[in-house]
Amino acid sequence: MLDAPNARELADFYLRLLPGWGVWRDEDGPDWVHIRPPDGGTGLSFQSEPVFVPPVWPSRPDRQQMMTHLDIEVDDLERETARAVAEGARLAGFQPQAHVRVLLDPVGHPFCLYTETAQESQ
Predict the structure, then answer these.
(1) pTM for this structure?
(2) Are 103 and 84 in contact (CB under 8 A)?
């Protein structure tokens, strides 16, 4: 579950980011959406939170901590980073690994794009 000021807007971002994914359930009203991959695997849920405070990356003890972050495997790190930015993500100022890109979704949740090579070298 990812909170956001507007669940549908954030779900739309992730639908653009994750090709082939679709809305699975949204009958609970405009403030809750669940999306999942075409094979029906684990999905993502989004809930509108009117007092949402975005997390800070990297974490600081006096600021909102991230509750979760997504790791998304990609084939071409530079191309997919550029595509994510074109869809509304921002490249995080702090990048702790050379073969991983930390980005912030439109409401500030951190997520990582990585290649299989990066996982093998860790």
Answers:
(1) 0.85
(2) yes
Partners of residue 112 on adjacent β-strands:
71, 102
**In the chain, where are the structural domains located?**
1-52, 53-122
In this structure, are residues 2 and 15 in contact, taking their beta carbons and an 8 Å threshold? Answer: no
95-119 tens-digit pLDDT: 988 899 999 999 999 999 999 865 4
What would the CATH number be for the domain defined by 53-122?
A: 3.10.180.10
Letter for the amino acid at 40?
A: G
Give per-residue pLDDT as tens, 46-77: 999 999 988 877 766 776 666 778 999 999 99
Q: Which two tokens stand for residue 29?
A: 């009203």
Beta carbons of 8 and 47 less than 8 angstroms apart: no
